[in-house]
Structure formats: C-alpha cells, structure tokens
Specification:
This protein has a domain of 92 residues: Alpha Horseshoe (Serine Threonine Protein Phosphatase 5, Tetratricopeptide repeat). It contains 12 helices and no strands. The N and C termini lie far apart (71 Å).
C-alpha cells in the first residue's frame, strides 16, 4: 500500500511539472508573439517574421495562431510573395475559420482582395457582386474558392448555381450541367427565380436536370 501511495504521489508531481512546463512554454509563446507584433508595427518585418514564426513553434492558442499567420501573410503580400501570402492566410483561417480582417486591413489594395478570395463568406459575397457586374472570370474564382473553404448548404447551392450560369453563358454546357447537378445535390428543392428560369440557355438545362431527379 505504501508503494502505491508513493507511486501516486510521484505521478502527481510529474503531472504538476508537465502542467508547469506547458504554462511556461505558453507564456514564452505569448511574449514572443507580442514582441513580433511590436516589431511589425515598427516596420521591422524581418525581425517580426522571425519572432512570429518562433511563437508559432513554441505553441499558441488558436486565436493567437490566426493573428500570427495573418501578420506573416501581410508581410509576404507586401513583399510581393503572393503564394506565401495565400498559404499563411489559409493557415490563419484553418485556425479560426470565422476570422475577419479589420476594416483598414480589408481595404488594403494587395492583401485585402487575396484574403477575401480565401474567406468563404466574404468570397461568396464578393463573387455575387462580381457576377452582377459582369466580371465572370473573377466571380467564378471567388465562388469556387468559397465552396472549397466551406459554405452553409443554401449558400453552397447558390454558389454552384451561379457557376452554372457563368459556364452556360460562355457555352460550356457540360460544366454548366455539372454545376447545376452539384447545386441540386446540395439542395434538391432548389428553384430558379422566374427571370432565371426564362433564360434561353440555362433555363431548359436546369429544368431537364430538375425533372430527372
């Protein structure tokens, strides 16, 4: 019995040490993150990138991970490294899918549009606006990006529907059918608005697919 009590005490001590180590590591990560953000604000991007990456390796909470990756993305975008910028924005959104930029950040001419294209809700809204103004190529990119990032069912069905419209309007009938089929798979009760149903190209295609379900 005494050996069991001693073993339990040792395990409790080890658990306490492990918890203390995690607390110390988390504190180090927080201090390093704050230092990196301070360096970023001061314009010392090289030092900021090192500090932020170090903080990520030390271990940060998800919200802090998103903040670190977001600022790393800003620096990549500012330096013209678009691929790396997109990669870090994706990591930020993976940590916090509901992440949104501050108004002054969203309005930045370089990273604002890139972030919007990766953020599902924002990309969906932007894609619809671009469709309405006839920017079909850019609209398709944003709608597809929104689908890839994840959308609620209703928005996902609408995104596929508008992608179908774009394909039909550019005489890509197979792709148009594919997108309508995906939209109906998400929402079998999907209906087109009267003005949409009457379109001479995609109206008959949608009705034929709807009838065949």
């Amino acid at each position: 019995m005494r050996r069991l009590t001693l073993a339990a005490a040792l395990l409790a001590m080890l658990a306490g040490c492990a918890s203390l180590d995690r607390l110390v590591q988390a504190t180090k990560a927080q201090v390093t993150l704050v230092e990196g953000l301070r360096q970023y604000d001061a314009g010392d991007h090289e030092s900021a990138a090192k500090s932020l990456n170090a903080a990520l390796k030390q271990g940060l909470w998800q919200s802090d991970q998103a903040n670190a990756y977001k600022h790393l993305a800003f620096m990549h975008c500012a330096a013209g490294r678009e691929r790396e910028c997109r990669d870090d924005f994706r990591k930020a959104l993976a940590a916090v899918p509901a992440l949104r930029l501050e108004p002054e950040e969203t309005g930045h001419p370089v990273w604002g549009p890139i972030f919007l294209s990766l953020s599902s809700g924002s990309a969906f809204s932007v894609g619809l606006k671009q469709y309405e103004t006839g920017q079909y190529s850019e609209s398709a990119k944003n709608l597809q990006g929104a689908i890839s990032l994840g959308l609620p069912e209703r928005q996902r069905a609408d995104a596929h529907k508008y992608l179908a419209f774009i394909h039909c309007s550019e005489n890509r009938e197979r792709q148009c059918r594919d997108e309508f089929s995906k939209a109906l798979a998400v929402d079998p009760k999907l209906e087109l608005a009267p003005a949409e149903t009457g379109h001479p190209v995609w109206g008959p295609i949608f009705r034929s697919l709807k009838a065949g379900r």
